[in-house]
């Protein structure tokens, strides 16, 4: 049974709201995607909150369900988001429930199908087809379980996939708006935006099994959607997070499904097949049944230009490429896909033959910028784990801000095919995080910590920028957690500025022999953070930063330390900032909002100068992106979700602020 709870106090007011395609996002009042708009620019045209009055913000309401990487969407003053196994619709003015749906109660499931709903009865699977989410190693696949006779049965839907839900506007006539939910166990479902009722004319009994046509050779549990679906016209586009080790496993392909029929419309192969462009960059026949590369961050949509942008993850095995000679397209690449056909329009590979674990980890941000000649250009900004910001022409993929190929240190791993060069922005200001560390730059918050860090530095190998992991302990910058964050950049078209938050941290690791899939010689890494005895980074401050970049030139306009280590500041140690996640948002009113930090703070800055305007302490860290919208009462609201990081069942809290 569809378990839907309605808040009776809101029935009348909610019924007055119009759910039409024309209304969605009109006049900038809504926040219809997790990045604010289909292009994920994180910009709002709302202007009630300004630098002059932002200090008057007060808590309007909160709701006891959230998540540290969760980003709600708001349509016509109604907020939608998942938390754990529940999807919520809340009144944007009061925070009261409009409806909520328990995903596990939507579709009955059967334990006898716990092996592979996609595989034909009695079909075998390739050994090593197992695994899990990002970072999981391969494991042997269990034998298939024959499907029982009778009506179709299902596996539990489980919790929502990462970050949030998507909005399908329908046609404003016969097709009513729906909330599109991707579940972590591999289903796509749709809920009526007004009532929360399951749309049952989709898939089987309302659940579309994403494992079909993808997992016939592998066990079902190895398919994990990497993010919420991107909605392009009447299509939902989704890709899996495929793990980072194992030769064999699920493909990381992006697939488009018709939201009204459930039909699979197209597939984009992240490893080109014979006859497709760029086939052969993995070596002879290395594309067959290869695990990944997938993706784990939101895709971006450009409907007028018929484009979908996918930031693709790294190749497997992640730290050794002896079995995959070549550049390995489209791993670690930003790919522009034709939204109607699934064909590649262009690609830009940020790391050739990735052996660094530098999967693209920043959501592509579409920006309408002014270039150095004063010309308007449709562009895309891609912030990366390796600490660079690339600004590319949206229609061609050619760099607007120049990029050069630079020689890089070579791996000492036997049989490795290290790329001779890697792309780097010409303007050093587009290096947005620390990418190397000399001995004279080694940090340490106290003299004793500094000496400890120096001694550690002297014991490890480092060849400078883009040092690969070696067969001896190696210091690498940035570490595998970035660099830039998963939510990508924000853009203010009025200021022509790009805003990014980054973290500066190093990692010590070495690679040692291992078998991949239990049969092929490979290498994998063991790693530790480059920290002192108390766990504080040996990287010099700042450890977290927020910065503004001129889109025309690539020059930094300002940069600020982001976050506070209050424990260190209480001892008289200058504030080094904190690790951070999420992204800033910016408004026409002239205010930049950001949570992201590990100090429970929500902050507002002047985007022109970087001056801190306002801050408030939350109950938990908010490693997510803020949101803003116009309520049905005509008032601008701004908020953020907090807590619950790392646990699908943890609820956290969503907090919303407004002017009195």
List keywords for this structure.
mainly beta, five-stranded antiparallel beta sheet, five-stranded mixed beta sheet, 3 helices, 40 strands, globular, disordered N terminus
Structural class: mainly beta
Average of pLDDT: 88
Helix content: under 10%
Number of helices: 3
The radius of gyration over CA amounts to 24 Å
Instruction: Measure the end-to-end span.
Output: 42 Å
**Taking strands numbered 1, 2, ... along the chain, how are they ordered across the largest sheet?**
1-7-6-5-4
Number of strand elements: 40
**Overall 3D form:** globular
Report the sheet with the most strands, covering strand number, pairing sense and barrel closure.
5 strands, antiparallel
Would you identify the regions where 5 or more consecutive residues have pLDDT less than 50? Answer: 1-27, 120-148, 645-650
Strand content: 25-35%
What does this entry look like structurally?
This protein has 660 residues and is mainly beta. The strands form 11 sheets. The protein has a 5-stranded antiparallel β-sheet, with no helix packed on it. A 5-stranded mixed β-sheet has the order 2-34-35-36-37, with no helix packed on it. Strand 16 and strand 17 (264-268) form a beta hairpin. The chain is built from 3 helices and 40 strands.
Topology:
Layout: E1 4-6, H1 11-15, E2 43-44, E3 58-63, E4 73-75, E5 78-83, E6 86-91, E7 97-102, E8 166-168, E9 178-182, E10 187-192, E11 208-209, E12 224-225, E13 230-232, E14 235-238, E15 240-241, E16 254-258, E17 264-268, E18 300-302, E19 307-311, E20 333-338, E21 344-349, E22 365-370, E23 376-383, E24 389-393, E25 403-407, E26 421-425, H2 447-457, E27 474-476, E28 490-492, E29 497-503, E30 507-516, E31 520-529, E32 544-550, E33 556-561, H3 566-569, E34 585-587, E35 592-594, E36 601-605, E37 612-617, E38 627-630, E39 636-642, E40 653-658
Parallel strand pairs: 2-34
Antiparallel strand pairs: 1-7, 3-40, 4-5, 5-6, 6-7, 8-9, 9-10, 10-11, 12-15, 13-14, 14-16, 16-17, 18-19, 19-20, 20-21, 22-23, 23-24, 25-26, 27-30, 28-29, 29-32, 30-31, 32-33, 34-35, 35-36, 36-37, 38-39, 39-40
């Amino acid at each position: 049974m569809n378990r839907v709870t309605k808040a009776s106090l809101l029935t009348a007011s909610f019924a007055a709201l119009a759910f039409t395609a024309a209304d969605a996002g009109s006049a900038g009042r809504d926040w219809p995607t997790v990045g604010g708009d289909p292009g994920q620019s994180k910009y709002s045209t709302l202007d009630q909150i300004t630098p002059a009055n932002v200090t008057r913000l007060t808590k309007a309401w909160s709701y006891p369900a959230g998540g540290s990487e969760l980003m709600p969407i708001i349509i016509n003053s109604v907020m939608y988001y998942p938390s754990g196994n529940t999807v919520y619709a809340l009144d944007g003015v009061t925070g009261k429930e409009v409806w909520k749906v328990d995903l596990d109660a939507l579709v009955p499931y059967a334990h006898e199908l716990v092996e592979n709903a996609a595989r034909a009865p009695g079909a075998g699977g390739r050994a090593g087809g197992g695994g899990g989410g990002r970072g999981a190693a391969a494991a042997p696949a269990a034998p298939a379980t024959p499907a029982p006779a009778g009506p179709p049965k299902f596996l539990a839907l489980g919790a929502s996939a990462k970050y949030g839900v998507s909005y399908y506007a329908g046609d404003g006539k016969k097709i009513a708006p729906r909330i599109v939910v991707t579940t972590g166990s591999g289903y796509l479902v749709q809920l009526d935006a007004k009532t929360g009722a399951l749309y049952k004319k989709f898939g089987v009994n309302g659940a579309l099994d994403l494992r079909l046509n993808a997992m016939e050779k592998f066990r079902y549990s190895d398919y994990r959607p990497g993010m919420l679906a991107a909605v392009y016209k009447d299509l939902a586009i989704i890709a899996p997070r495929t793990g980072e080790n194992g030769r064999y496993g699920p493909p990381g392909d992006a697939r488009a499904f018709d939201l009204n029929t459930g039909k699979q419309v197209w597939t984009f192969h992240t490893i080109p097949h014979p006859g497709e462009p760029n086939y052969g960059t993995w070596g002879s026949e290395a594309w067959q049944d290869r695990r990944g590369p997938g993706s784990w961050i939101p895709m971006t949509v450009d409907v007028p230009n018929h484009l979908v942008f996918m930031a693709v993850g790294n190749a497997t095995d992640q730290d050794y490429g002896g079995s995959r000679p070549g550049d390995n397209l489209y791993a670690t690449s930003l790919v522009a896909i034709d939204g109607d056909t699934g064909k590649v329009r262009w690609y830009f590979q940020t790391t050739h033959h990735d052996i660094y674990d530098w999967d693209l980890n920043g959501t592509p941000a579409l920006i309408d910028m002014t270039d150095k000649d004063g010309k308007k250009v449709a562009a895309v900004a891609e912030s990366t784990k390796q600490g660079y910001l690339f600004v590319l022409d949206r229609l061609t993929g050619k760099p607007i801000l120049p990029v050069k190929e630079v020689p890089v240190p070579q791996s000492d791993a036997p049989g490795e095919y290290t790329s001779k060069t890697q792309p780097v922005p010409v303007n050093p200001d587009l290096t947005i995080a620390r990418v190397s560390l000399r001995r004279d730059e080694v940090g340490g918050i106290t003299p004793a910590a500094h000496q400890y860090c120096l001694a550690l530095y002297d014991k490890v190998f480092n060849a400078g920028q883009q040092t690969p992991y070696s067969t001896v302990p190696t210091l690498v910058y940035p570490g595998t957690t970035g660099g830039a964050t998963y939510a990508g950049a924000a853009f203010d078209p009025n200021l022509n500025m790009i805003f990014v938050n980054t973290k500066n941290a190093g990692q010590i690791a070495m690679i040692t022999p291992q078998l991949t899939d239990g049969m092929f010689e490979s290498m994998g890494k063991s790693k530790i953070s480059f920290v002192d005895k108390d766990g504080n980074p040996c990287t010099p401050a700042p450890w977290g930063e927020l910065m503004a970049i001129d889109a025309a030139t690539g020059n930094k306009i300002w940069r600020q330390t982001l976050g506070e280590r209050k424990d260190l500041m209480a001892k008289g140690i200058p504030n080094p900032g904190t690790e951070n996640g999420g992204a800033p948002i910016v408004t026409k009113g002239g205010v930049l909002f950001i949570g992201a930090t590990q100090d429970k703070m929500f902050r507002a800055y002047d985007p022109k100068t970087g001056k801190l305007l306002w801050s408030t302490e939350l109950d938990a860290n908010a490693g997510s992106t803020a949101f803003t919208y116009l309520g049905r009462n005509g008032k601008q609201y701004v908020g953020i979700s907090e807590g619950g990081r790392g646990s699908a069942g943890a609820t956290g809290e969503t907090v919303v602020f407004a002017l009195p």
